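*Target chain*
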Amino acid sequence: MENNIPYERILKRVEKPGRYAGGEFGQTIKNKDEIKARFAFCFPDTYEIGMSNLGMRILYGSLNEHKDIWCERVFAPWSDMDAQMRLHNIPLCALESGDPVRDFDIVAFTLQYEMCYTTVLYMLELAGLELLACDREENDPVIIGGGPCAYNAEPIADFFDIFSIGEGEEALVELTELYIKMKEDGSYTKSAFLRAAAKLDGFYVPSLYEIGYNDDNTIKSITPKYDDVPAKITKRIISDMDKSYFPDKFVMPYIETVHDRITLEVYRGCIRGCRFCQAGMIYRPVREKSPEVLSEQAKKLYDATGYDEISLISLSISDYSKLRPLCEQLLEWTDDNMVSLSLPSLRADSFSKELMEKISSVRTSGLTFAPEAGTQRLRDAINKNVTEEDLMNACTVAFEGGKSQVKLYFMLGQPTETYEDLAGIAELADKVVDKFFELKREHKGEGGFKRPPSVTVSVSTFIPKPFTPFQWEAQDELDVVYDKQKYLESKMNNKFVKFHHHDAKVSRVEAVLARGDRRLSRVLLESRKLGMCFDAWDEFFDYSKWLKCFEAAEIDPAFYANRRFGDNEILPWDMIDCGVTKEFMLKENKKAHENITTPNCSQNCSACGANKLGGERSWCKRDL
């Protein structure tokens, strides 16, 4: 076996060497002798996906702003690189220095979706680290998890030392400063550090909590092991977005990534209250940036990168209260520099001709809207607050603006759903096609009406997520999902409508991992024995392997995915406080079953509880 083969020769043997080469323009290099803590930021997916993630760019920059901290990037090697690394005994390394991940002080994983869990374990193994936190040595790195999945970290709790709950720009720096302080004053041991970290706001240390179970396998108790460990961990937020860290340069990849453009974060949170949407709850309260700050940030990134597109991102960009002045300020310099604007998260009820004229996406091939349900009754039940009239008006604007392609997103299996609701999906798609031809007749086939319409209906399977009003609901059994998919497909008889549905088996595993408890760590350990990773990728996902893992771990997936949790049941994530109260979500669940809607935050404060977290330029502050 070749143990000293030059790394350059390895890169010549893999499909995309640019994933592993490092040395990109804009990366941060520091003198190892002048820093006090080394931080490896791991993205459990490919380089192309990780390098497109704005959160990673923000945290990379905010940590490296600190003179004593050096944060480096780590991505999951693809299967061809994995084979070479194992053949030549090459451990997982960071891009900037090329040093092994196991030599770092802190190793952090961003957990964006549940199906990345197998890839986290794959990366830990490649790094030469023990998978279980209890098996790692005193001098091994501290392993941290963060991101949306950290709000229910229990299925992976046994593999991590700490979880960062909420927004990390300030929190991760604070945690690393604590690490440095304890190392310098000689008080550091891993156990002492974890105990001290648990006292910081926004950090959950799973080893400091005892979980008890009832005879029916539900959770009996969640108990801190020490009096000074908080019973509830409240998420961290950035109060003033104008003053929060935002990078003025990006690391520029050598290869094409998923999003090769400037991504500009306009605000955090969502004023809507879709009852299935986790992001809309855990990112509350809404906190906006001012147009002046956003324009300045965009200009700095344009000067540093040369990208010719700016994407204005948020959960619902058209809900930004100053969207018009922001677009006007950006267009003052973007037009002259041939930089286009795109708004990827538009709602059908706020899409207008004015927006069409201001953004580049309207000059591309198509637009996307998410009615989520086929009938108004079900849209009311899920609190989507979008009407058929809203969708028809949006499509009218799109078609008259030269569009011929529209994509519609729906969700199958939502609480209270009937087959009438499913039939409504096909009927709604047909009405969009009819609207095109109605407008074509009015415009005598001129302009964009010379092309035939194309309406794509994409249907995913409902997944009950923690910290949503639907967190108690059961997911449909697989055979029910298959029957519904088949029924819906039979209704799609329009030649101008294309129908796609997601793999229900992936959704079932995701539901198990989303609502699971610590006992699922046994399942994930079995997954590593089978070599599973990249389960978010179709070519790697293997449902039969997941069933083997559940069986070997003596876990019934239906207990987590297909069971309605009791209203008074202790939930696996009840030690976490996301700001929105459980009482509010229970009320919203009840209203869903009565088809009653709740106004959005700009219309009325519904007392969800998030106002206690504060935040400048927040809808909560306006309403109270």
In short: The two ends are 68 Å apart (CA to CA). The chain has a mean pLDDT of 93. The first helix runs from residue 7 to 11. The CA atoms of residues 209 and 447 lie 64 Å apart.
